[in-house]
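Encode chain A's predicted structure.
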Amino acid sequence: MGIRKNAKFLTATERENFVKACVLMKADIVNPAAVPAAQYSRWDEYVAMHQMIQRGRAPGSALTVNFGHGGTGSYSFLSWHRYFLHRFELQLQSYVAGVMLPYWDWTDPAPLLVDTFLGPNGSAGSQIVSSGYFAPDRPGTAGNPTPLPPWYPAGLNGWNLHPDFGTSAGGLKRTVGGFGGLPSAADLRTVLGQTDYRNFQVILETGRNEFGTSVPSGSQLHNGMHGYIGGHMGKPAISPFDPMFYLHHCNIDRLWAMWQSDGHAIDYPLVGAKPEHGPADPMYPWVGTIAGYSSTVSFPTIVMPDTSAIGTVRNQDTLNYRTAYGYTYDSLAVIGIGLDRTGSMTALTPDPMTGSGTVTKWEAAKRGVSAFLQDAETVQQSGAIYVTAGIKTFRSLVSNDFSSVFPGTPYGLIKPGTSYSKATFDGVVAGMTPSGGTPLADALQDVEDTLVEPPDSWIPADEPRYLAMLTDGMLTSGSPMTSIPDGSFANTAIFAMGFGTAADVDYPTLAAMVAKGRTLGFSQVFHGENAGTIDKFYSNALARAIGFSTVFDPVIELYAGEHTHLEFWATSGEDAFLITTQGMDFSDPNWSFHLQAPDGTTVYADGSGHSGGAQRPDGTAGQHSGHAGHGGGSCGCGRTPDVTVNRSNGRLTLVLQRDSADASCWVGQWRLMVSYRARDDTAMTMFLPGDLMIPVSAGPVRGPRHARLLDQKLRMSAVRGDPSPARHRLDVGATGTNNDSADACAIVVNIYARTRLQVELAPERELVERTDGFKVSVAANALAGGIVDTSVFGRLVGPAIDIADTVRRIEPTEIPRRATYRVPGDKRSRRRIDTAILLGLLERERPELAAVIDEEVAVSEHGDGPAHFHVDERPTPGSWHLGVYLEGSYCPEHDAISGRHEHREAGHDHDHADPGDDADPHADCMLETFTRFLNTSIATVDPPK
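Encoded structure for chain A:
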């Protein structure tokens, strides 16, 4: 089977395959030997089946039974529909191989209700869907202006319900939004927070549990969403005629699957069920050869299909849906983490970053994983996505030592207050010390074997999974990397980070690790000398695992007393953002954050510093964690975005969900306001795009570098205060506030989006010989709509000096004792070189060792190909860091190539015909601004001699 995905984020091919399968199912006649008037389709059969089971009969009972609905005690509401969807999905796959059922996440369905997907809302008056593939008239005819696709069956005249359904027969009807409102993110959290199956089932079906607790918005959830779509969907007896039915129930099944992953995998009440709803009760009509099951509903021609060949399917058989039916959801992610615990991690972090002080690599790495867990917890608390993860440290002593951080089963759902949490990790690793060698290949294989593959027995086999390996150096023990064939982890995407200087890290080994798994088409190798790169590495790994992509990822410095506004844009293509900020002093009291929506509403405020706009009246302003929820603010929006926040150790993690908010509250420019040790809001500094393009992995672009390790004053001084002249037009610098004498601190900001507007940097290769140069493309893809009017800028930073060669040339007798260390607890081993301190001492004597090459790079475009950067031969080997700023416009209604327009509602006044060659398909569109700050690193090595 495969992965069931959010319908809003399907590719064009996935959307077409789904509707194609539906239309072919509608054209598939069950009884072709009957006279034409009596013939009915497989789709009609499923509509009838759903109606017939609502008035069924069980053996030995005179009472009618609704096998799939009924509120409290009707436990098979979930299990019956799970199996019904499975049979439906198999039927679709008989027409289009590999097609999967998508889900509607109960947010604004407008992106789905377009001609070339699920069809628009019904027309005023008749309520009939009049265009698209689900209209009563065939596409391309006078009654349906949607172009006829080549796969549309010749014998199907349109989408009409069979005459057997009496007054409901005919064209598909919808009255979207005519009954109640959409559920909120807070509603879904309430549902997922139920502690027993009985209450989970009834609140999901009705919006209210048996104790009388309703979801916050008052929505009736399952029942209410039938009414929200309206028309045929609003009538339980015939609701499966609308393909939205299946997406709606797929979302219900998704929520059940998420709830199951939170410790409820086999939960099903043994007592308290209504008749035929117990765990061992068969689910009609899939009762095998058991006699006595029937329905009191009959149709003139449609009959219940013979399902005896399937055998008897009971409610309890549906619990392990992965094993039984072979599918999962894109809102369930799996990632394994390997953390280097070898002796070399005792050395100091080469680039301490402004304000962070000196810490060992081990401490910096632990902080990075702890931050990853805080982010994963926040994502779980938001109700958007559940992350299953495991963490192992690795080293070699007498033999390999791979230690799980979490007790018992080494992986689980990351959730606060459980064994799989940030608190558990922090407590366990506090007692660990690094030592031994670096068995990278063996550790990689172990993480794959024990953390990535085992969860849910990796069913389905094509589920994408993720693995993140952080190491500070080279493979020094165990099996060679060649012992693992390239591509052998076929569905695992591997992220690898080399944490150290060019003299420490083996770039080819990092590239070799990534090659063992699935290639994603964008950066999977990270190089850096500072804790900020670690933060970026783990944040990126989590974002990719949950289906988010980078929007904004700068590192900035603030002097004490300053604040700034960091601006990013939301379009209608985004439905959620993951925002993380990490103050490099790791101190919460020093930082203040406010997040302001395009209409001026402050959706999050921690209660200190400045606030631009109205704060929420619900008490969330000033809190460092929790859910901001709905409402509040002074805007005129009917719905405002949903916010989930956690704060600790100088880190803000915030999940921002549109949650069906009005466009005025979502589409436009957002401002993240950051203050550092500020008592008021009088000292404001601003950063231009050129400053924000500098990748955090590039380290300082001016002034001292490794020498900062040796001088407390340098560590507290901002790099931006260096008076060096500008090197190019992007090298402008932040505005001054006359605070340059104050202490400063760096903060790393990462903003990711779940979006239909996907822009990535795609290096041709991540490891190249320096004499060859390299190429990086800007890969832009709109899953829906089009991208127009883009401008792209690039800034490249790399080493001016061959650091590795500099270190190699030093004789062992010339290395100061200060630049060596002994691994704690290992008094018999020889002292090791701390490369960072050695480079710091050398840099004091030769300041030119801190020099970097910082240049603007030109973007190239050829015909219809993507924008890209050609970088010529590099003068020195090492890691080269490319920062890119892109701005443009997004049209949610037109494909940028064809100019094809999609209906948003009945009666839209756009022309459906493709414009002529000279026409601008976007001339009458409301274009939406978008920007991206992206970066990638390319490792260059000397060619072999």
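Confidence is low (pLDDT under 50) at residues 608-636, 897-917.
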